[in-house]
Amino acid sequence: MGDTLEFNEIYQEVKGSWNDGRLRFSKQNVVYKSSKTGKVDSIPAGELNMAQWRRVCLGHGIKLGTSTGHIYKYDGFRDTDFEKISEFFKANYKLDLTEKDMCVKGWNWGTAKFSGPLLSFDVNDSTAFEIPLSNVSQCATGKNEVTLEFHQNDDTEVSLMEVRFYVPPSQADERQDPVEAFAQNVLSKADVIQATGDAVCIFKELQCLTPRGRYDIRIYPTFLHLHGKTFDYKIPYTTVLRLFLLPHKDQRQMFFVISLDPPIKQGQTRYHFLILLFSKEEDINLTLNMSEEDVERRFEGKLSKNMSGSLYEMVSRVMKALVNRKITVPGNFQGHSGAQCITCSYKASSGLLYPLERGFIYVHKPPVHLRFEEISCVNFARGTTTTRSFDFEIETKQGNQYTFSSIEREEYGKLFDFVNAKKLNIKNRGFKEGMKGKIDEYSDSDDDQHDAYLERMKAEGKIREEGNDSDDSDGGSDESFNPGEEDDDIAEEYDSNASASDSSDEGDESEDESAKKKKVKKAKVVKEKKERKPRKEKKQKDSGGPKRPMSAYMLWLNSSRERIKSENPGISITEISKKAGEMWRQLGKDEKEEWETKAGEAKRQYDKAKKEYKESGGGSTSSSKKESKKSGGKKDEKKRKSAGGDKDRERGGGNDSFKSKEFIETSEESSSDSDHKSKSKRKKESEEEEEEAVSTPASSEEESD
């Protein structure tokens, strides 16, 4: 037989719910680790004094008792495990594993026995049920009964609220009431918080993030009292799982996180973490409300009566001594900015993710603590909104998924190296199917320096930056339009130099140059229009021409329609055509030949009539109409083009037609010269028109005048 025995999927009952974990028997101790909370129970082998094998609801279970009065129960063993465990106990613990039968009669009358932290209800010397007194929250007495109320567990669907015991009056000892004696035995081991005595120390007006507000924290020997303006919380030290001391990213503040199981309650809200925020610059002088001898005897040098230092150091030091738990701080991880945390978002609220030596913790809304041993795999996913960030997804073995989004791209390399060093399974969701067999090998390879996802993210970032640079360069080309330079070449309508440019002989050329520049600028904005294909003109029917002849089938159908209706009364029009098609296909060649000859005769008559119609000039009118329509369409297009050109001229010359007051006062002579030149141009144009069009002499004379 080996030195150890290990069992998986062993269950421990915690306030009405079954928590699974791993149990290991070794020569030195018995260790049980919960898979849910990670809490470790270690029982030294020398303290074991009782071991029982019992048949329970989850197969078989072991009940262990220690010399210190503690009871531990573990269920989920198989029937075949009895011999193996019994031999191990005899060989290493010098202890017999005895079999104990439970009472399953269902009787409600028996004997209540108090054995250490358990209240057992026995019927005929067989245990019917057991109540851990640490689960009792309150004990109330009546005339002949005792009521036990229990702490509630949020993980259970059904919770036991209370149990009432009827205690009959005892005539043997009249001096002591049996009801009070029963209640005293319960309260001596129950987890009932009673603020008796003075507090060891008090921290006033501490900033608390969850639950939010400022609270006075009073430190008692067995519990922590949070006193606020609206709520009070009493937290037993037995419910504290872990302590964290985390530096803020700004290096000026500190988080002190207390992990609780079971959580504290405020209405329907449960707080699994108590988060305090301290400033590093805040100092305090602390004096414990105890004598120096008591401090030395109880805390064994961990605390002293008078202490001074930073406020967060004093709180963490006192909590560590009273709770007797180690304080977890960030390990060797350093982000891109040199901080020991990563800025990210979880459930639409921003916070800080701290990679620890044995897990991750996110603060603060809502706080999340994930241990490496409960993580199934992690995934680096591209951000949904931008390539400048990525998402970090964590999937637990229970199937829960936590997504920390909006992490800066620069943090990827540091975080990936950390995850790879911790040998966590890394998966890429895009190649999930192809990488199933390689996940373990990939996560274990610390020497693998090539990261395809990192290279892909770098390439995407370069493309994104190049796109931004090209946008900036486009903006620079627009900025090349300098109003100051253009004032030197082209006078604006409000410029005092406008008269010189308009009155000079080169005014028309400057106008043409300005129009060209404006057209070039517009060409950047206006998109090129695709040329539309001309529509095919429909053939127009000639109403005066002869009608086309009918086919053989149609001639037969017209003659047979009435016969089909009479043979099939109530038949519809569509059904008539279907029926006629079937009948036509069934006709023989001889019958069809009759109708085909009739159709051929009708075709010859149609050809003859069409020829006579064309010779008499019947089809020429339709062709002339088509030509007129085409010519009319061309004229309309010319009109549209000329109208569009006039509008463009009006738009282009809108600035030249406007004349400011300054222009009118300074350029009267130049305007008269320009008017004289325009009249002479008009005369030349009119003379050329007289030579070309002699038929319109009156209009040309009017123009010359």
From TrEMBL:
It comes from the Eukaryota. Residues 546-614 bind DNA. Residues 576-615, 624-636, 643-664 have a biased composition (Basic and acidic residues). Residues 468-477, 484-495, 503-512 have a biased composition (Acidic residues). The keyword Transcription applies. Gene3D superfamilies: 2.30.29.150, High mobility group box domain, Pleckstrin-homology domain (PH domain)/Phosphotyrosine-binding domain (PTB), Structure-specific recognition protein (SSRP1). One of its GO terms (cellular component) is nucleolus. One of its GO terms (molecular function) is DNA binding. Keywords: Chromosome, DNA damage, DNA repair, DNA replication, DNA-binding, Nucleus, Transcription, Transcription regulation. Residues 459-705 are annotated as: Disordered. SUPFAM superfamilies: HMG-box, PH domain-like. The keyword Membrane does not apply. Residues 546-614 form the HMG box domain. Its main location: nucleus. It is found in: Nucleus, Nucleolus; Nucleus; Chromosome. One of its GO terms (biological process) is DNA replication. Component of the FACT complex, a general chromatin factor that acts to reorganize nucleosomes. The FACT complex is involved in multiple processes that require DNA as a template such as mRNA elongation, DNA replication and DNA repair. During transcription elongation the FACT complex acts as a histone chaperone that both destabilizes and restores nucleosomal structure. Belongs to the SSRP1 family. This is FACT complex subunit SSRP1. It comes from Amphiprion ocellaris. The lineage of its organism: Eukaryota, Metazoa, Chordata, Craniata, Vertebrata.
